[in-house]
Design brief:
By secondary structure, this protein is α/β, with parallel strands linked by helices. Among the domains are: 225 residues, FAD/NAD(P)-binding domain (3-Layer(bba) Sandwich), CATH 3.50.50.60; 50 residues. The protein is 27% helix and 28% strand. It is globular. Bound molecules: flavin-adenine dinucleotide.
Amino acid sequence: MADIEVPVFIVGGGPVGLCTSLLLSRFGVPSLLVERHPATSIHPRARGLNVRTMELLRTWGLEHEVREAGRALENATDVVWAESLAGRVLRRVAAGGRRENIRPVSPTTGCSCAQDELEPVLLAKAQGYGVGGIAFGHELIGIETGPAEVTATVHKSSTGQELTVQAGYLVAADGADSGVRQALGVAAVGPGILNQQIGIYLEAPLGHLVMDRPAVLYFIENAAISGLFAAVDNTDRWVFYTGRPPDWDQAAGGLPAERCIELVRLAAGLPDLAVRVRSVLPWAMAAQTAERFRAGRVFLAGDAAHLIPPVGGYGMNTGIQDAHNLAWKIAGAVAGWAGPSLLDTYEAERHPVARFVTEQALLNIRQPGRPEQYATLGMTLGVSYDSAAVVPDGTPVPEIANPVTDYVPAARPGSRAPHAWLQRNSERISTVDLFDTAFTLLAGASGQRWRDAAAMASRDLGVPLAARTVGQGGDLGDEDGTWA
Ligand SMILES: Cc1cc2nc3c(=O)[nH]c(=O)nc-3n(C[C@H](O)[C@H](O)[C@H](O)COP(=O)(O)OP(=O)(O)OC[C@H]3O[C@@H](n4cnc5c(N)ncnc54)[C@H](O)[C@@H]3O)c2cc1C
């Protein structure tokens, strides 16, 4: 007898695990998430949420909270190259593409919000449903998979107790060094580690240097140092990333604080700058993708499934979008309306995306400053799935000159539904907002029979299916005639 029995067990309380918990709760599926650390991330690693991730957060009712959490970086939409933070700016581009290109195709825009500010928002939302349990200070230490269930052993750090958890499915969102992936013998393929880096999380009064030229990232290149200042609040909190210096000594705790301060001063261009080092994160820039995203009842998601070099800021976004792809399928399997083969489509759909995104990040490294690095609307909104869950309509794949930069709205099966503004009573909503916890059928204003048929099919098959009519006299108004 296991100590705990739960339909879904989630390992890892980073953004991907938290989103998986949140999503399963939205489907009413109980889960248990364990995270070995005592709380959410203390280091502001990722900060760029792309427009697709923001669409998802909007559907989950989190757009406002996330923008509030990232308020300090509200105006920091650019990426800058400079000789030093105090020195000459060499180049500036808009990260995530220009807003005027995004507005016609999405109800929202990308947002900058440091990961340590984002995770508490996701956590509060996930806990708020009261459906999924979240246990910090609990580490997965063993896993056994069977044909009908997964059994895990968990160590509780506060008491030293060992607990067994039995679950129908396990989602491994346990990050870059995924112990679950290794325990299951799933190989990770790709170039692997590209270089060793450090991230110095620091406090220093640098806001006045960037007040009139705010950016989210400041690449620094001068004779003494090259690296990257990532803004946390664009005033006093920053992370400075640079290659791991030769005098880094892991056994002796890394680098002395004075050495970190020296590096920061060189990059800031201010030899007397007052710097307080909060923490130093050693990390490896790596590129690899798990050979499989599924092993029986276990699914890999986020960094556990794919390590994407953070050159372009795609890693967390890809992981959150994995969770979005996976959660409804597991929910369907738990509820019994989905057959087990639906679960295979997670890998079929997300593996090619992870590979493509990783290739783009590698190209960004090989060809610094390539235009595609910060103009990714095609890659972000134009993902099109081809799997056994998608019923083709016979239309050809649209020809797109550059699938990274160019997004062409398509209602083709497998695509994200294109955005059009609609009216629900006095509220303005997007078509994108309608695709949430049920299959969704949209019909024209005179599509009452479609609605009736959908209601019947939903009832007879036990599949959640919402149907709406759009246009004059329908459930939803077609504000500017774009929907049709
Ligand atoms: C310097 C840097 C900058 C980045 N910038 C961006 C960016 O701008 N945009 C972007 O999209 N991405 C970026 N990324 C990538 C992003 O940080 C990751 O992709 C993201 O954190 C992955 O989320 P995750 O939940 O999959 O994994 P993680 O955030 O790593 O979370 C995994 C969690 O699992 C826990 N865990 C592991 N093993 C166990 C166990 N056995 N038991 C219990 N818990 C366990 C860990 O403690 C950890 O909290 C950046 C990464 C780095 C390093």
